[in-house]
Amino acid sequence: MKKRFIALTFILTLSCLHSGIFTKVLEYNNTIDLNAVESVKDGKTFLTVSGLCAASSMSVKEICVNQIDNVICIEVKVSALHSKKESGRFNYSIEIPDGCTSVVYGLDWFELWNIDSPFRTGVLVKGAKIPSGTTLVTRGSQFSEERYEFTTENSGVVKYYMTEYCNKCDSYPDGIVYNETRKPGKFEYNPDDGRMLVNGQYIGHLVFIPAADCYVLYKPFDVYIRTLAKARHLKSAWAYGSRFGKLSYVFYTDGTFYGPLSFEKPDDSAEDVPAGYKDTYIEENSIVELRYWAYPNQDFVLHDGNKLCHVVDYMYKTNRKVYLNDDPPEYLKNLE
Question: Does 274 have pLDDT greater than 60?
Answer without folding.
Answer: no
